[in-house]
Design brief:
With about 270 residues, this protein is mainly β. β16 and β17 form a beta hairpin. The radius of gyration is 18 Å and the shape is globular. Bound molecules: manganese (II) ion (MN). The site of manganese (II) ion (MN) has 6 residues, from β5 and β10.
Length: about 270
């Protein structure tokens, strides 16, 4: 069954970290979450004042953060000694698990910075796993050309069989960056929630800066001229207790996370 667009929503202006100006696409009053996705932010500016403050040291527990850069550079550094740079076209899929403290800072003082951060929830059984990273440079992300466009396969598998760089994550996510002038068809398991975010142009009647939420089904066909992210993941159907940078299943677990953080147990 083909998935239809059941709702379109415009991202809202927000500020996070040390004054970073961004567009909140998921995690806003109009779209609190789309199980398993807790948040999607887009940051896109050529004004350093909008991004230079970055995201100084902060904790995470209980979910995954996925940073995908389209332009510019972001340096990340955590309290376990893990450090590196996410450059244009690269992705970092970080499984925070039981917890990390890290910083995410733009490594440039001028020019365009454009990227996305997606928060993917973890199932209860995985929330307290040790932190883990999957990191890929632009050249390591498969790029498939099809009749009508091309698709960068960050995670999941295309109908033509191109396997994404990021594998083995809990919610079996699909994360595609599609450049299109025609039609793009993609299977999405019925177990998944899915959406697309239009970066440029117009896709299936949805304009840039808007998200199209997909209804039930197991396949989607999107026609248009532009660039978009197509993202889907398995519904967890578990209770969500959310407090700032911690996402657990119960209030008790959330309070424990704050206590562990304040007591230096991250
Ligand atoms: Mn972070």
């Amino acid at each position: 069954m083909e998935r239809k667009i059941v709702k379109t929503i415009k991202g809202v202006a927000a500020s996070d970290g040390d004054g970073v100006q961004l567009t909140r696409i998921i995690g806003s009053p109009e779209l609190d979450m789309l199980d398993p996705f807790l948040m999607l932010d887009s940051f896109a500016s050529d004004n350093p004042g909008d991004y230079i403050g970055g995201f100084p040291e902060h904790p995470h527990r209980g979910f995954e953060t996925v940073t995908y850069m389209i332009a510019g550079k972001m340096r990340h550094k955590d309290n376990a000694g893990h450090e590196g740079m996410i450059e244009a076209g690269g992705v970092q899929w970080m499984t925070a698990g039981r917890g990390i403290l890290h910083s995410e800072m733009p490594e440039q003082t001028e020019g365009l910075l454009h990227g996305f951060q997606l928060w993917v929830n973890l199932p209860a059984k995985d929330k307290m796993l040790p932190p883990a990273y999957q990191e890929f440079k632009a050249s390591e992300i498969p790029d498939e050309v099809f009749d009508g466009g091309s698709v960068r396969v960050i995670s999941g598998v295309t109908d033509a069989g191109t396997l994404g760089a990021v594998q083995g994550t809990a919610t079996n996510p699909l994360y595609l960056d599609v450049t299109l002038n025609g039609v793009f068809k993609q299977k999405i398991p019925a177990s998944h929630n899915g959406f697309f975010y239009v970066i440029d142009g117009e896709i299936a009647g949805v304009s840039a800066g808007h998200v199209g939420i997909l209804g039930d089904g197991d396949t989607v066909a999107l026609r248009g001229d532009g660039r978009f992210l197509l993202i889907a993941g398995a519904r967890l159907n578990e209770p969500v207790a959310r407090g700032g940078p911690f996402v657990m299943n119960t209030r008790k677990e959330l309070l424990q996370a704050f206590d562990d953080y304040r007591s230096g147990r991250f």
